Amino acid sequence: MKVGSAAKSIVAGLSAGTAALVTAMGDNVIVTGEWVTIGLAVLTALGVVYAVPNAERSEQRRPY
C-alpha cells in the first residue's frame, strides 16, 4: 500500500466529515439522521478517493 493513496483518502474523509458536520450544526443540534449522513460522507470519501489511482507524473520540463 502506498502512503500517498492512504493519506489522500484520510484527508478526503476528514474534509467530507467536517463539511457534513458544519452543515449539520446549522441549528446547533445533531439528530440521528445527520450522524448517519456524516458517517456516510466520510465512508464514501474514503472509499472513492482510495479507489481512484494517483495520476502518473509527467516528464519534467526543461528550461529553454
Compact summary:
The protein has 64 residues and is mostly helical. It contains two helices and no strands. It is 66% helix and 0% strand.
Structure description:
The structure is a single chain. This protein is an all-alpha fold. Helix 1 runs antiparallel to helix 2. It is built from two helices and no strands. The protein has helices at residues 3-24, 32-51. The protein has one domain.
SSE layout:
Blueprint: H1 3-24, H2 32-51
Helix pairs in contact: 1-2
Provide the descriptors you would attach to this structure in a database record.
elongated; membrane; 0% strand; transmembrane; 64 residues; single chain; mainly alpha
Average pLDDT number? 87
Work out the radius of gyration.
Answer: 17 Å
Runs in which pLDDT lies below 50 for 5 or more consecutive residues are none
Query: What fraction of residues sit in β-strands?
Result: under 5%
Helix content: 55-70%
Structural class by sheet pairing and helices: mainly alpha
Number of helices: 2
Question: What shape does the CA trace take?
Answer: elongated
How far apart the termini lie comes to: 38 Å
Order of helices and strands: HH
Largest sheet: none
User: How many discrete structural domains?
Assistant: 1
Compute the number of strand runs: 0
Transmembrane segments: 36-53
Protein name: Holin
Keywords: Membrane, Transmembrane, Transmembrane helix
